[in-house]
Amino acid sequence: MKHPLGQLRPLDTADGSLSLHSEQFDEAFHSSAGALQESQAKFVLPAELGRFRQASELKLLDVCFGLGYNSASVMHALPQTTPPRIVWWGLEVDPRPLKWALGQQPFCDLWPGVVLQRFEQLHRSGSWSDGGGQGTMLWGDARQNLKALPSSYQPDLILMDAFSPGHCPQLWSEEFLGALASRLAPGGRLLTYCRAAAVRSSLRRAGLTLRSLLPATRHRIEWSSGTLAVKPHTTDPLAMEGPGWTVLSEMEEEHLNTRASVPYRDPESVDEAGMIHQRREREQQSCGLESTSAWQRRWLMNKNPQHDSNVT
Ligand SMILES: C[S@@+](CC[C@H](N)C(=O)[O-])C[C@H]1O[C@@H](n2cnc3c(N)ncnc32)[C@H](O)[C@@H]1O
Predict the structure, then answer these.
(1) CA angle, corner 159, sides to 156 and 160, nearest 5?
(2) Domain that holds residue 69
(3) How many whole angstroms from 92 Cα to the centroid of ligand 1?
(4) Which of 24, 39, 111, 158 could be joined to 115 by an S-S link, Cβ 3.0–4.6 Å?
(5) Looking at residue 81, which CATH number applies to its domain?
(6) Does position 45 have pLDDT exceeding 60, yes or no?
(7) In angstroms, rounded to a whole number, what is the distance separating the alpha carbons of residues 120 and 101?
(8) Could you tell me which residue, 79 or 169, shows the higher pLDDT?
(9) How far is ligand 1, taken at its centre, from the CA of residue 5, in Å?
(10) Is 281 contained in some domain?
(11) What does pTM read for this prediction?
(12) Which residues does a 6 A CB cutoff place in the pocket of ligand 1?
């Protein structure tokens, strides 16, 4: 049987946590700086889980569950006293990463028993249920399975962790991001490591307020480590700054006016990556927007000629 991810190769990351590399997507599941560190800096910290101390429920949607670091980190970091009941859904095409992770002692050592029991249940039956809540995994293409979630389900948090737009544009399309945004509860947050202009522009057009995740390390020259996108809440407006995030800089705002901001389009939610890229390249050629390399020269090259900016 051909697996959607092709062959999976184990990887060590710099904080000692384990990850995988997908042959088919030609991409690692996590930053080489650390799988655990990434889930904490880019998902747990900006989620501000303390907000849910008095809440009766936390609705959590994990898009691209993989080994499960993001959900496990959130579950582990929830307030211990009067934690909210979790109503969890997961979207993931390949069950092998979870199976592999559960067989690795260093991975299991990271999490409390309650999290591991939920993951074991997910692996065995695709769902979990205990005194702290309940969860269901929808195995298969997230584009189709998102439509299968109950229409009343409005997540407070969406953990969006697809492979990069260059390798997996299917899950960064205007349509898919719009569908995620429309599900968010008022005040709900979508978190992602992705800072691409096309993705940010789609999220903004979908009505979300954007914030930039601060670079995770001080040692690397970076301008953002991801995006926090929030569904506006009339009575509780989003602050300009919070833990691990701030407003988009002038440079980041200008990035959204360049050709890089042309969205990935997938009108029927069935197209393959190549088709989506071709469609976008055609639109970029005729869009009349500033080239992204001109923006890059203006903001990045002059300040730091060695900057290796992988700007998309
Ligand atoms: C960057 S990894 C996610 C890492 C994960 N969050 C973790 O903590 O290990 C991307 C994941 O997206 C999944 N994926 C790729 N295409 C998908 C699709 N069309 N629908 C659902 N999941 C998909 C892959 O199987 C992979 O597990």
Answers:
(1) 130
(2) 31-301
(3) 6
(4) 111
(5) 3.40.50.150
(6) yes
(7) 10
(8) 169
(9) 9
(10) yes
(11) 0.95
(12) 5, 29, 64-70, 91-94, 97, 141-142, 161-163, 168, 170-171
